[in-house]
Design brief:
single chain; 0% strand; elongated; 3 helices; mainly alpha
């Protein structure tokens, strides 16, 4: 369930763990799919409702991330900007440039 629907008396009392974060990420994925579908159908009212829930979830996840500066991704994994790009993926054939 989205954090947006948790009663105020229970907010801030939930245990934050990887499972909770993953559930919110999965929910956000579904929300984005619903928003896209409703946009294609021209149903703006539903889009706005789902966008508000998505925004709350993202703000909540950002708050968790900001409160946990000691949890950093492993530095051994290159980021997309640092990762070497295969010429096969770029040109459709093997070789170097």
């Amino acid at each position: 369930m989205s954090v947006a629907f948790v009663p105020k008396r229970l907010r801030g009392k939930a245990k934050i763990n990887q499972e909770t974060v993953q559930r919110l990420l999965d929910e956000n994925d579904q929300l984005i799919r619903c928003i896209t579908e409703y946009m294609q159908k021209g149903r703006a009212v539903e889009c706005v409702q789902y966008q508000q829930i998505l925004h709350r979830n993202i703000v909540y996840l950002a708050t968790i991330a900001d409160a946990s500066p000691d949890i950093m991704p492993p530095s051994s994994n290159p980021t997309a900007a640092e990762a070497p790009v295969s010429t096969t993926a770029v040109n459709g054939h093997e070789g170097t440039q």
